[in-house]
Amino acid sequence: MITARSADAPAVSLRPVDQEITVPIASNLDIVSARQWGRTLALQGGCSPTEAALIAMAISELARNIVLYANRGEIVLSNVADGARRGVTVVARDEGPGIADVPRAIAGGHSTSGGLGLGLSGVRRLMDEFEISSEPGKGTTIIIKRWRR
Ligand SMILES: Nc1ncnc2c1ncn2[C@@H]1O[C@H](COP(=O)(O)OP(=O)(O)OP(=O)(O)O)[C@@H](O)[C@H]1O
Ligand SMILES: [Mg+2]
Fold this sequence. Notes:
The protein is of the alpha+beta class. The protein contains four helices and six strands. Magnesium ion binds next to α2. Pfam families: HATPase_c_2 (PF13581).
């Protein structure tokens, strides 16, 4: 496993597509970094620029939530294969306050921070798979996948 540090000092230069990239998230700069690594990984895995942009957008929303609600956490990115299918998996995890009402949080339109409350519902729509587990006081883990078209 390789760790990418921040947007201005990336620790990763080259790695095979089957390796994971872990981006620690604790600041707005880290959000940019995670987004860029996601885009790079998606392009390396053969995604179109449009698909790579969608994946980058999803990563950015999950990373933004980590900074906003949990202060810190991490995003783990990897290219994955399932039979003939190829895609990108993103794991966003933190040990923050957790989400008290998960169905309401992913339904969209509800925010505990005065936002639009459209981040998670948007990510869910953009991706092919979306799994969330969250426990108040323990943290949140979200796993998303997008298969190459
Ligand atoms: N990592 C997290 N830890 C704790 N709570 C979270 C986390 N991510 C999301 N939430 C909760 O889920 C709600 C919905 O998140 P979502 O990203 O959809 O909307 P938002 O962040 O409120 O607004 P925005 O549209 O700007 O993203 C948040 O208001 C917050 O209460
Ligand atoms: Mg959000």
